[in-house]
Amino acid sequence: xxxxxxxxxxxxxxxxxxxxxxxxxxxxxxxxxxxxxxxxxxxxxxxxxxxxxxxxxxxxxxxxxxxxxxxxxxxxxxxxxxxxxxxxxxxxxxxxxxxxxxxxxxxxxxxxxxxxxxxxxxxxxxxxxxxxxxxxxxxxxxxxxxxxxxxxxxxxxxxxxxxxxxxxxxxxxxxxxxxxxxxxxxxxxxxxxxxxxxxxxxxxxxxxxxxxxxxxxxxxxxxxxxxxxxxxxxxxxxxxxxxxxxxxxxxxxxxxxxxxxxxxxxxxxxxxxxxxxxxxxxxxxxxxxxxxxxxxxxxxxxxxxxxxxxxxxxxxxxxxxxxxxxxxxxxxxxxxxxxxxxxxxxxxxxxxx
Length: 353
Ligand code: PEP
Ligand code: MN
Fold this sequence. Notes:
Blueprint: H1 2-39, H2 46-59, H3 66-90, E1 105-107, E2 111-113, E3 119-123, H4 130-140, E4 147-149, H5 167-180, E5 183-187, H6 194-200, E6 203-206, H7 214-222, E7 227-230, H8 237-248, E8 255-259, H9 277-284, E9 289-292, H10 293-297, H11 303-312, E10 317-321, H12 339-349
Parallel strand pairs: 3-4, 3-10, 4-5, 5-6, 6-7, 7-8, 8-9, 9-10
Antiparallel strand pairs: 1-2
Helix pairs in contact: 1-3, 2-3, 4-5, 5-6, 7-8, 11-12
Manganese (II) ion binds next to loops.
């Protein structure tokens, strides 16, 4: 019994020694990670790992068999890679580790995106005419909506579909702003249009199709207007975070991340809303996250429960497409709500004005 007690004590001590050595190793892994990052090198070096493993197995005298040694060291290598990845993510300026408090994006003194109160951004898919925008605003304003959306430059899948009114659409927005004092979110597709779009937009939208347009991201990062960055159809959460990093590392930290559904095999919705992206982004980054329920679902009948779920998961706002008469809309006519449907949706959400 005494012998057993002694051996157990020795094992305990060895465990602590192994732990100490593992962390000594981890500290060096962190140093290597830093050097690799500075040089822009990949953290994963499979050739080095397999070479090291072969040398360890050759050295192994047992009693652990090769298979056990291999398993143990593979775990150590994998934990080291995770450590380097985590370290790397934490160095990003969009990371929570860089800034722990939530970023608040203020649009004037009336609207704050990222605070307690969710912000509803409503409006048509496309700006079609002054009268169209007027009719939509007349419906939205009594409900207390303060931020309107609408595309002047439209990124359409087909080059033969309505491409937006372009500069004329911006001019309509300018008139609408003057008349109603609303804040405007509108998409910029091209670096050459940033200046013109910024003259009317309070928020520059980068659409799903342009999340990977790094030159555009850098350029909106160099100017001051807040940026609403949409997740691309097939972008991982990490790719979205890195796209935001492109913007913020150029100096603009007013960024709103937008989950708008990703492409999956599912056909009953236009895209599949990735609800888990909301808390994951919020944990990883200090930037506010909103959800575009219209493009996520592509249908009207489930917008309310989907938007409620998004808010419950921590979304700081909801974007939704609204048209006074969706049947005549020049784009996305199946998914836009009419004003009555929007009013029911808005009441159902129970968001304070
Ligand atoms: C839009 O919001 O107008 C739009 C085109 O959406 P997405 O870029 O998410 O497809
Ligand atoms: Mn649309």
